[in-house]
Structure prediction request, 320 residues.
Amino acid sequence: MKTLTLVAALTAILAGPAPALAQAYPEKPIEMIVAFAPGGGTDVAARSIARYMEKYLGGNARIGVINKPGAGGEIGWTAVAQAKPDGYTIGFINAPAINALVIEGKAKFKMSDFQPVANLVYDPGVLVVPKSSPYTSLKDVVEAAKKGAGAVVIGTSGVSGSSEHIALLNFQRLADAKFTPAFFGGTAPVRQAVLGGHIPAATMNLSEALQIAREGQIRVIGVMSAERSPYLPDAPTFREGGYDVVAGATRGIAAPKGIPADIIAKLEKAIDQALKDPEYLDAAKRAEIPLQYLASAEYKAFLDGATSDLEATWKATPWK
Prediction:
């Protein structure tokens, strides 16, 4: 009996303490990096979910949203990819913009440098015009462009290769017209440009246009979704306008590659619980955040597919 007790004791000593990892995680504040300026769709989504993730992570968890805008998201995404994979730096990534940067060779990271945690949002693109614009439909914009190739400037809230730019390329291909893209690199500047009448049209995500559209400051003449959005039911889809353009941006959470699996599982579970929380769902509805949840494995498969699709597009029609 004494021998068995001694063997058990030695085994415990040799094995050492079980790794705490997710049991103790998080022991300090978590940084959630947003690769865009405050006030945009990604920033709103991040700040909305952060406090509910804190609730379900437990242990007095604290999540600080850190904005690192610039270079169409490349600065913030690089910070996530290069962070220590310990669960204390996570961030929002936006497909297909992030995939496009990799395919163009502009990024300091690869998609394999990220561990997807969960997708939260799918936000369709829209084409908007100033309230005083003579354009009332997509066909009006197309006809104006055909009168002079490149005569119609269309601003985008992203950069070359962003979801809006690629959607714009598809639109002009289907319309057999030529537009001139103007890259603003963020939602706030392109909104100001179209509100001020400095550009005749602009693309952005639906959630970023809702408030000013409802206030009558701009007109949404096309939504890039398969069906009309319940958030703006009077706005026609591109398909209704005669152009089969369905495009948008996803917003999800990722961590650096190499993060322990049990920490990923804890983050994923906290997000899943947050997205089922009636209080959060009510807040998201009031903030009009278009939720679309994908768990870690599904999200990775989606991102891999987006990369493959964009690689094929890049080979056929490079966008830079």
Remarks:
- The domain at 29-122+249-316 is CATH 3.40.190.150 (D-Maltodextrin-Binding Protein; domain 2).
- The first strand starts at residue 30 and ends at 34.
- Confidence is low (pLDDT under 50) at residues 1-20.
